[in-house]
Specification:
The complex is a heterodimer of chains A (about 300) and B (about 375). Chain A is mostly helical. Chain A folds into two domains: about 5-75; about 80-285, MetI-like fold (Orthogonal Bundle). Chain A has helices spanning about 5-50, 55, 75-80, 85-115, 120-130, 135-150, 155-160, 165-180, 185-195, 195-210, 210-225, 230-235, 245-250, 260-285; strands at about 250-255, 255. Chain A has a two-stranded antiparallel ribbon. Chain A is flat and about 70 Å long. In chain B, the strands form five sheets. A six-stranded mixed β-sheet of chain B has the order 6-7-8-3-9-10, sandwiched between helices. In chain B, strands 13-12-11-14-21-22 form a six-stranded antiparallel β-sheet. Chain B has a four-stranded antiparallel β-sheet with strand order 2-1-4-5, with helices on one face. Chain B contains nine helices and 22 strands. By secondary structure, chain B is of the alpha+beta class. Chain B is elongated and about 80 Å long. The chains are: A mainly alpha (about 300), B alpha+beta (about 375). At the A-B interface, helix 9 and helix 10 of A face strand 6, helix 2 and helix 4 of B.
Chain lengths: ~300, ~375
């Protein structure tokens, strides 16, 4: 290497180092910025939920800090004085049922649509996705008629019936994508090994597509946990209400907002999704298919 | 153990005819290789034997029974795929035993059979690993192990070595041959690599355009190809083809290749070719039969000179390329005999190994 080329290499190496440092710096800068931006609302909620009503109402106090002592009063009131626990129980029942129904239906649907060639399978797959594109604000009026016709108005079981119209199409769509990414030779090998379609699904497809199934589960869980339009339209009485609507309707009376309890309720309501995400993310091992075929 | 038979098998995908009326008998224990270029229908044929594709017309028999409507799992076959198709979430042991577990084989027997197969393939140390922790060659062994443990009637291989690097491919080729010598199961093996076909097969089936061109032992295909396609496909480097004409030369025949180049037809061939005098023909000769002048018995009239275009030294031999009438010709000479590109070289065509092809029918005369 001549002196000139050595110098050039050193210079380009140095500039490479510098540009890498810049990339790191800007990435961290924006990451921190967005972390702060997204953590402000939960922080505000925690702080408010730990204040007394008097401090919340005191206009001169700093909303970002707890000045007059930490109290769990809001949580005690929420659990004792309101129907929050009933809403919570209803939401858990609805969500568990919806997730179960969604996963069974969409895994079976995706398996047949991605692997079994039958007349109209292509159109069906697209059709399923199109149904997801119709917003629930349009759907709730005809669905209201259907739910009333079935005698399920003002029953949380109507939610178990209605939410899958949102979750099944999308989850099926996700699963079709995952199943299609599984090499065809894998099912052929299973067929020759002696597996039927059901064994193939249970022993090969579901374990291999686990990341996709988990992604779909998270989606179904989030949709049914956080839905608002359907419960506010179909459920009226407190004993049938779910968290999203129940918390708001029971803690806002005309222009009186019980901010402390609202924040406490929102935080407790947000806890299960957080736990589910944290728990399932550990199992969200992408690239599980690596090694199946030549990589 | 069983024989396999195909009777007038046709496969159509919508309008496209992928396999056109092929018939083939594979006796018990035989190793048959289907070889041909991409799209010749060899994989489709194999997949029909496996039951992964439906047969449009004709019959497939395994062990004397028609299996057209028998699902793959009941055909008692095992298949090794090009991309291995190992179950990624299972260990090697689980991969190999999957078929046995589905058939509810007793646990002790499963263990014994997997361990025996692992021993044959030398993968005993790998039984607890997952496919992604294995190299390409190891994955290929596991895929073979999965086939062996089942102790099937027929082994089917679909280009099993195509994904391996050149060195490993040669190793695994020997391995497959060794395994077949040990287990002696009827085997149908698909490849596009004619060297693989020649080295592995008891009999080779050369396919082209959905049809069988020729069935025969490797030696037979090499020395007595029936069609121009087989003559050109089998052998590497490929056979040289040159337009030619036969001219009468008294009692003997003369093969005219260029205005200035003609060879006498050996007496042994003359009777066979006499009817083709005056017709347009294609002359075929393998590179190893065009050499530097060597041997005591050679006919000096078959020697000629050409200017060398390119030389490719291979170590034990050297490929020499030159043109005759605008067509490139390859010769295979001793490394010591090779000359530099651009130089004239003295060459000898051994016409005892010649082929003449009728360009209208593409058949070897």
């Amino acid at each position: 290497m001549t002196a000139a080329t050595a110098e050039y290499a050193r210079a380009s190496g140095a500039s490479l180092k510098r540009s890498r440092r810049w990339a790191l710096f800007t990435s961290y800068f924006f990451l921190v910025l967005f972390a702060i931006f997204f953590l402000i609302p939960p922080y505000y909620m925690i702080v408010t939920s730990l204040k007394s009503d008097a401090e919340v109402a005191h206009l001169a106090s700093n909303p970002w800090i707890i000045a007059n002592g930490l109290t769990l009063e809001q949580y005690r009131l929420l659990f004792r004085e309101t129907d929050f626990l009933i809403y919570f129980k209803n939401t858990v029942i609805v969500t568990l049922c919806v997730v179960a129904i969604t996963m069974v239906v969409s895994v079976l649907a995706a398996f047949s649509l991605s692997r079994m060639r039958f007349w109209g399978s292509g159109i069906l797959a697209t059709g399923i996705f199109l149904t997801y594109l119709i917003p629930d604000t349009l759907l709730f009026i005809p669905l209201f008629q259907i739910v009333r016709g079935l005698g399920l108005l003002n029953s949380y079981w109507s939610m178990v019936l209605v939410y899958p119209t949102l979750t099944v199409p999308f989850c099926t769509w996700i699963m079709i994508g995952y199943f299609q990414s599984i090499p065809k030779e894998l099912d052929e090998a299973a067929l020759i090994d002696g597996a039927g379609h059901m064994q193939m699904l249970l022993k090969i497809f579901i374990p291999v597509a686990l990341p996709g199934i988990i992604a779909a589960t998270i989606f179904a869980f989030t949709v049914s946990w956080a839905a608002f339009v359907y419960p506010i339209a179909f459920l009226f009485s407190a004993d049938q209400q779910v968290l999203t609507v129940g918390t708001v309707t029971s803690l806002i009376k005309a222009d009186v907002y019980k901010w402390g309890m609202l924040m406490a309720g929102a935080l407790v309501a947000a806890a299960p999704p957080l736990i589910v995400y944290a728990f399932l993310m550990d199992y969200y091992i992408a690239g599980l298919t690596a090694g199946a075929t030549k990589g | 153990m069983a024989d396999v038979a195909l009777r007038n098998v046709v496969k159509r995908f919508d309008e496209v005819e992928a396999v056109r009326n092929i018939s083939l008998n594979i006796p018990d224990n035989e190793f048959v290789v289907l070889v041909g270029p991409s799209g010749c229908g060899k994989s489709t044929t194999l997949r029909m034997i496996a039951g992964l594709e439906e047969v449009t017309e004709g019959e497939i028999l395994i062990g004397g029974d028609v299996v057209n409507d028998v699902p793959p799992k009941d055909r008692d076959i095992a298949m090794v795929f090009q991309n291995y198709a190992l179950y990624p979430h299972m260990t090697v042991f689980e991969n190999m035993s999957f078929g046995l577990r589905l058939r509810r084989t007793p646990k002790a027997e499963i263990r014994a059979r997997v361990e025996q197969a692992a021993k044959i393939l030398d993968i005993t140390d790998l039984l607890d690993r997952r496919p992604k922790q294995l190299s390409g060659g190891q994955r290929q062994r596991v895929a073979m192990g999965r086939a062996i443990v089942r102790n099937p009637k027929v082994f089917l291989f679909d280009e099993p070595l195509s994904n391996l690097d050149a060195k490993l491919r040669v190793q695994m080729r020997t391995e497959i041959k060794r395994v077949h010598q040990k287990v002696k199961t009827t085997t149908v093996y698909v490849t596009h690599d004619q060297v693989e076909a020649m080295t592995l097969a008891d009999r080779v089936v050369v396919m082209n355009g959905g049809r069988i061109e020729q069935i025969g032992r490797p030696h037979e295909l090499y020395h007595r190809p029936k069609t121009r396609f087989v003559a050109g496909f089998i052998g590497s480097p490929a056979m040289n083809f040159l337009p030619a004409r036969l001219q009468p030369n008294g009692e003997a025949l003369l093969l005219r290749i260029a205005p200035e180049l003609a060879f006498p037809i050996p007496v042994a061939h003359a009777a066979r070719y006499r009817a083709s005098v005056g017709k347009d023909l294609v002359f075929g000769l393998r590179p190893e039969h065009i050499t530097e002048p060597r041997g005591e018995q050679r006919d000096p009239r078959c020697e000629f000179s050409r200017t060398v275009d390119v030389i490719e030294p291979m170590g034990m031999e050297t490929m020499v390329f030159f043109t005759v009438n605008g067509t490139e010709v390859c010769a295979r000479v001793e490394p010591s005999a090779a000359v530099a590109p651009g130089q004239p070289m003295r060459l000898y065509a051994n016409l005892n190994h010649m082929h003449l092809i009728d360009p209208a029918t593409e058949l070897v005369l």
